[in-house]
Every structure is written in structure tokens, then in C-alpha cells.
Amino acid sequence: MQKGKLIFEGNNKKIYECSDSNALILQFKDGPTSLIQLSSYGPIHGNGILHNTVSSFIMQKLSGLNIPTHLINQLNMREQLVHCLDMFPFRVVIRNYAAGNMMRKFGLIEGSKLHKPLLEYYIDAFEDTDSESMCLISRSHIENMGWATDEEIKQIEEIAYRTNDFLSGLFSGVKISLANFSLSFGRHFSYDEDDIQVMLGNEITPKTCRLWEDTTDHKFRFRYISLLEVTERLKLLPQHTDNPSKDSKIESKQDIYKLSDKV
């Protein structure tokens, strides 16, 4: 697939045109999200590889469940081929547990499980995935602004709840609780069939999720779980490109550096 002109660059991703006029190339950069340490003052070498790996894996699994996503296929360790989408100017946040300032405003105890998943809408803030800093809006805002039709909103909510069911089970299987997460959606125009379909876009990674240790011990429940640890628990660490052994996996952050230099 021939990469074309750069059409967008954010803090964590680049988007390129490609030889297929109906598709784009999405490239993950080494953004400021930490691989191992709790905080960082600059780009972490190699985390773009892990974000691409995790997001591709999740999107492929969702597609297998007939949940429409923008992913066509993973091209390499940093890049995906994706459908062109007309993105909606809002995000969906699903909350399974009370967490953050928003929940404290309702008098809920941090970490308490909600009676059922709570769906919220926020005005999209480009690559700012922290729902605390985004503007909460209602379904009525979306309808009045003409951002989505009633049928599109129904599709968005159905996809969001089904995605929550899958992700909750996926992370629970590796002893992680999914407290909340955000999703981005867009319209895909099928020129051959003259059809419009709502699809999941952007990414689904630990950066767009709030993940907790799945334990009854409250003291350790809110322990920070790094990007590297999540990828390792899901058994998604990329193999060395210079070693054909099937058992050759990344063992340290230095291995991430080696792989990053080859991409």
C-alpha cells in the first residue's frame, strides 16, 4: 500500500492518504503516554508500537463480532489501513464504576460499581481523551445541532454497549477492571452500495480507558497499570524482527526501543 500525503498530525497519531482513495493510513506516534513509569516529560520511545498493536487487536475482535470498525488491516508495527470516516463531533463515554470528579459530583464513592453501564456524550476535544476536561452534552444537544440522526444515535448506543460487554470480558480475563472508556464514531460512505454506515473510529487502547486492578483489596485496586503491562497481560507483545524464533518476545523496555528503530 503506497503512502501518500500527510493530511493530519496530532499528539499521538498521523493520518496519510494512500493509493486506495477510499482508505487512509493511520500511523501511531510515540506520544507522551508512559510505558512503565507513572509519569513522563517527553515522548516514550516505542509506545506507538504498543498502541497500534492493542488497538488493532481489539478492532479485529470487534469486527469478528459484527461490530463495524474503521480497521481494514494492520500494515506494520506502527500503521493501520482504515476506512475513510466522516467523524461525529462528539465522543461517547461508558462508565461501569464511579471514578473521577464527574462521579464525585453525584456523591458516589470512588470505585463503587454502577447499577448498569452509564452512557455519556462529550464534545470531542481532538486527541484529549480525558473526559474530565471535555464538555458533557445531552442527546438533545446532538439532535438540535444536527450532528447525528435519531437512527444514527441508536446505532452508536448499540455499538457502545456491545463494545463495553466485549471489553469488560476481555480485561476481566486478565484480572483488570474496566472502570470507563471513550469511543469515537464516524460515518462510512460506501460508494459501491450507496450506503452510509456508522463505524467505530480513532483507537481503543489503554490511553482511552480507565483500567484498575481486578481485586477485592481496595488498597491495591487503583494501582496504575502501565501500557506495557496491559499489552503483556493480553499476550500482545510484538516479537523480535531479527529473531525468527516463535518464543522470542519482548522482555524489557530496551526491546521496545530495538523494535522501534526498525520501523
Overall average pLDDT: 83
Can you count the beta strands?
11
User: How many H/I helices?
Assistant: 7
> Which architecture name of the largest domain does CATH use?
2-Layer Sandwich
CATH class of the largest domain: Alpha Beta
Strand-residue proportion = 25-35%
The largest pleated sheet is described as: 6 strands, antiparallel
Structural class designation:
alpha+beta
How helix-rich are the residues, as a percent range? 25-40%
Whole-angstrom Rg: 19 Å
Please identify the oligomeric state. single chain
Structure description:
The protein is α+β, with helices and mostly antiparallel strands and 263 residues long. It folds into two domains: 3-84 and 226-261, 2-Layer Sandwich (Phosphorylase Kinase, domain 1); 86-221, D-amino Acid Aminotransferase, Chain A, domain 1. The chain is built from seven helices and eleven strands. It has helices at residues 47-64, 100-104, 139-145, 150-172, 218-221, 227-233, 253-261; strands at residues 3-9, 13-18, 23-28, 71-74, 79-83, 86-97, 113-123, 136-137, 176-190, 195-201, 209-213. The strands form two sheets. Strands 6, 7, 8, 9, 10 and 11 form a six-stranded antiparallel beta sheet that branches. The longest helix has 23 residues, at 150-172. Mean pLDDT is 83; it is low at 36-41 and 240-263.
Chart the SSEs and their pairings.
Layout (H helix, E strand, L loop, with lengths): L2 E7 L3 E6 L4 E6 L18 H18 L6 E4 L4 E5 L2 E12 L2 H5 L8 E11 L12 E2 L1 H7 L4 H23 L3 E15 L4 E7 L7 E5 L4 H4 L5 H7 L19 H9 L2
Antiparallel strand pairs: 1-2, 2-3, 3-5, 4-5, 6-7, 6-9, 7-8, 9-10, 9-11
